[in-house]
Every structure is written in structure tokens, then in C-alpha cells.
Amino acid sequence: MAVLPIRLFGDPVLSEPAGPVSSIDGKTSRFAHDMAETMYEAPGVGLAATQVDVHERVITIDVSESRDELRVFINPEILWASDEHKVWDEGCLSVPDIYDKVDRPARVRVRALNEKGDTFELEADDLLAVCIQHEMDHLMGKVFVEYLSPLKQTRIRSKLKKHQRDAAPHR
Ligand code: K1U
Ligand code: ZN
Question: How many CB atoms sit inside 10 A of residue 64's CB?
Fold first, then answer.
């Protein structure tokens, strides 16, 4: 297993849409487990393959407090979204230390394959519903910041540039 580097907002790879996984084999499940290790180490409640510069439709999520309820979604599709919406304070491992409100359907029904290649469906609410939608946006090349006002986006970009400058080794 391996912890993979997470790309940050502003990196063009985050805008690249992911394609479907054509066949699920040992390589796919090893990659899903590397993604899980990366998500737990960050720490985060979700991760999309796009964030580690792999452009295939794979997501890992664990919203449990015990951090032992890993879900792997391969080729996820939203089958239904509720008319009722909810506003949630979202974060993103690609946008460190920034949280802001995003309005999304409160509940979704999703179909996906797991790492063994079995199809499953689930209906999600609360953080799981938010996280599924947030990660599926990543697979389409969209970061949650793009739901915010242009002014907020500009502020976030300059904050992140400062964060990257501060993190870079001084000469
Ligand atoms: O996609 C990502 O970058 C992961 C992101 C998922 C997410 C969180 C909250 C709302 C929507 C989507 C994160 O995990 S940010 C970190 C975070 O929320 C968290 C980290 C540790 C424990 C609990 C939460
Ligand atoms: Zn994110």
C-alpha cells in the first residue's frame, strides 16, 4: 500500500474528467486501497482518483467515526437526487484549510461497482450524500470552490498560493 500525493486546487489535473474503469482486476483493487490509505492518512472522509492524478472513475469514502467503514465506488452513477436541498460546510483535501457552504440535494441514490466488481446500490443522506456528490464532481473535473462567488474563488486562490509559498523550502 502507498500514500499518494494529493494535487492542490489550481493544478490543471483537477479539471480533467475521468473515464470509466473498463475492467476490475488486482490492479484496480490495489489502487483503491492506495487511495484509502491516502484518504485515512490525510485525514479525509473521501477521495477521488482525480485528486491523485488518475483519471478513472474511482472514489473512496469513509464517513464513520470509527474510520473502519471504507466504501469503494467504481464507475458511480447517481440514479436519483431528492428535490429537497441542504447546505453543508464542505472541505476538500485539494483546498487545505478552506471550508465553505455548498447547496446540494439532501439525499441521493447511487449505483456503483465495489473493488471486487460487484454492483451495489445505496441511498445516502447527511455527510455521505454530500461526500458522494463532492467526489463525483471531482471525477467530472469540478472542485467545490467553483460553486462559490468569483470573489471567494480569487481569495482562495491567493490564500493557497501563500500556503504553497510558506510550505516550500527556503533557500
Ligand atoms: O474530496 C476531498 O477532498 C475529501 C473531503 C470530502 C468532504 C468533506 C466534507 C464535505 C464534503 C466533502 C474531505 O475529507 S475534507 C476533510 C474533512 O472533512 C475531514 C477530515 C477528517 C475528519 C473529518 C472530516
Ligand atoms: Zn475534494
Answer: 12
| Cβ(53)–Cβ(17) below 8 Å | no
Å from CA of 92 to ligand 2 middle: 4
Q: Report the candidate in 121, 158, 112, 140 with the shortest Cα–Cα distance to residue 9.
A: 158
Q: Which residues does 54 contact at the CB level (< 8 Å), separation at least 6?
A: 18, 31
Marked catalytic residue, from 56, 77, 121, 135: 135
The Cα 86–Cα 31 span in angstroms is: 32
Question: Which tens digit of pLDDT belongs to each residue from 116-155?
Answer: 999 999 999 999 999 999 999 999 999 999 999 999 999 9
Q: Is 123 a catalytic residue?
A: no
Ligand 1 lined by 91 (C-beta under 6 Å): yes
Rounded-to-integer distance, Cα 97 and Cα 123, Å: 29
From start to end of the chain, where are the E strands?
A: 46-48, 58-61, 71-81, 85-90, 100-105, 108-113, 119-124
